[in-house]
Predict the structure of ABC transporter.
Amino acid sequence: MTAVVEATALEKRYGETVALSGASLSIPAGEVFGLIGPNGAGKTTLVRALTGTTEPDAGTATVLGESPTAIDRDRLGVLPQDFSPPDRLTARELLAYYAGLYDNPRDPDAVLAAVGLADAGDTWYEDLSGGQQRRVCVGSTLVNDPDVLFLDEPTTGIDPAGRRTVWRLIEELAAGGTTVLLTTHNMAEAERLADRVGLLADGSLIAQGTPDALVAEYGGSSRLEIETAADPDTLVELEYSVERAQRRTHTAADDTVSSGVEDTLVVRDIDPAAIGAVVDALERQGLEYTGLSWTEPDLEDVYLELADRMERERTGGAGESGEKKPDDETTTDLTQTGETA
Ligand SMILES: Nc1ncnc2c1ncn2[C@@H]1O[C@H](COP(=O)(O)OP(=O)(O)OP(=O)(O)O)[C@@H](O)[C@H]1O
């Protein structure tokens, strides 16, 4: 199938900083491709190279078979990470302003409804909440009914309900044939929306595949987390290996990792049917615990595993395999991991 978005061996430096180092990807028509990776990995630079707002030093980028600077803008929708629209416009005026830039735009009110802001048309943009503003910005990329959509962190700052509105919108667009490249730090978002995911690290894509394939290859085993300060050796009677790990806690409302770590023991590769035996063992030993949670590996485990491998390659030593992911699928933010990876 012909690629709609294609990057081949893209290189980009800013002075001494290498932003892209041989980034390659190929996105066929109608696919949603999720680009994930640590802060500074080069995601925005790759999006900018693909949308013609930065010139790569080497390599080639094409969209719909054309150079990004030559493509008919009517066919593209681009949401930059730091989009700041003109001041002193209402939400409806703002969408009408962008609609006015195209020959056959969509009705601004229909776009407002699509992003879940049908009632906010008369509100000044500056009076909208941050998440509502971001939804208007997402809407502004849709006024020309684009064939290809680039969304750089589309749901950052949007509350869980609004995020789901945007997710459903992206799903509908994809079902209608729109090709989408989105960047995100939210692994649940990537897992839900993306047909394929690419992990960008140090300017190149180190893994690409369907979420299922990536989880099967890099996700590891299922895991029972026991919130307890107890020593792993006290559970030696179990036939499983038990290790200490640290579990990040975080604030659900704003997607950020927030409040340090809790002591956690992890039992790997355990069938849910065997959890009762673990509970019995804890109680026999008189060990206090505040919670138990069983999880199957997911995209977040893939991210953490690959980030850990990168760290080990870089340092030639131990990575951060003790890091454990947060347990709320709606609030996965890997910024901290990214900065240390
Ligand atoms: N205009 C610029 N001038 C100088 N350095 C830049 C510029 N744009 C990006 N960089 C650097 O290039 C690297 C990649 O940045 P980029 O914004 O592409 O990463 P990212 O993966 O999008 O990060 P984040 O997840 O934080 O948004 C970083 O080290 C960044 O500091």
In short: Residues 14, 17, 19, 37, 39-45, 81 surround adenosine-5'-triphosphate (CB under 6 Å). The two ends are 35 Å apart (CA to CA).
